Amino acid sequence: MTFLPCTNEASSESIASSPKRDTMSNFLPDSSCYELLTIIGRGFEDLMVVNLARYKPSGEYVTVRRVNLEACTNEMVTFLQGELHVSKLFNHPNIVPYKATFIADNELWVVTSFMAYGSAKDLICTHFMDGMSELAIAYILQGVLKALDYIHHMGYVHSQPYPDFRRWEGVPLWPAK
Q1: pTM of the model as a whole
Q2: Three-state secondary structure string covering 136-157
Q3: Per-residue pLDDT for 30 more than 70?
Q4: Mean pLDDT over residues 68-79, rounded?
Q5: What domains can be seen in the chain, in order of their start residue?
Q6: Which of 146, 120, 142 has its CA nearest to residue 131?
Q7: Is 27 helix (H, G, I), strand (E, B) or coil?
Q8: Residues 34, 53: contact at Cβ < 8 Å?
Q9: Which of 23, 27, 29, 26 minimizes the C-alpha distance to 103?
């Protein structure tokens, strides 16, 4: 995900005033606590591998995004730092929060909830090969638009509201007007 702070007057809403979800406190930042089960995606110029994993202490299935930091340029590392910082500020039911972020063996690990049905693209390819009804499309878009509205009200612009949320690629950003 890519975010850029807005500079308009409407963005003066305080980030600090929003209640925080206590999501990261229950997941240990230790790679030995996660059993990587299978690869379910790739991204970030093929430097990121997305795994289905099991969090050993609770048995919960999670998604682990692992980015090879040794292969990243300095600009990529700076980009990732900014993304992680900004993303941790968000608290919205339509934005998947991080459960843990840490470095293990020169890899950045980002742990999130496992979304069993995958992305909207996965749903379409698996269950709606002949298309979706307008109602189903409206339901999916409503959730995306609520999240984008929240991000805009927090003073940021998301650069890629794509159906495949596993992609992490830098795209030019423009302040909201």
Answers
A1: 0.72
A2: HHHHHHHHHHHHHHHHHHCCEE
A3: yes
A4: 94
A5: 3-158 (3.30.200.20)
A6: 120
A7: coil
A8: yes
A9: 29
Q: What are 9's two structure tokens?
A: 């007057």
**pLDDT tens by residue, 105-160:** 999 999 999 988 887 778 888 888 888 889 988 998 999 999 999 999 998 886 65
CB 20 within 8 A of CB 14: no
What's the CA gap between 52 and 94, in Å, rounded?
Answer: 20
- Judge whether 142 and 161 are in contact, CB under 8 Å: no
Distance CA 103, CA 48 (A): 13
Rounded Cα gap, residues 164 and 122, in angstroms? 8
**Euclidean distance between CA atoms 150 and 42, whole angstroms:** 27
Instruction: Transcribe 80-135 into DSSP letters.
Output: HHHHHHHHHH---TTSPPEEEEEEETTEEEEEEE--TT--HHHHHHHH-TT---HH
**Dihedral of the alpha carbons of 22, 33, 1, 121, in degrees to the nearest 10:** -110
pLDDT digit string (tens) for 74-87?
999 999 999 899 88
Spatial distance between the Cα atoms of 129 and 151, rounded to a whole number of angstroms? 31
DSSP-derived letter for residue 76 is H
117: left (phi over 0), alpha (psi -120 to 50) or beta: alpha
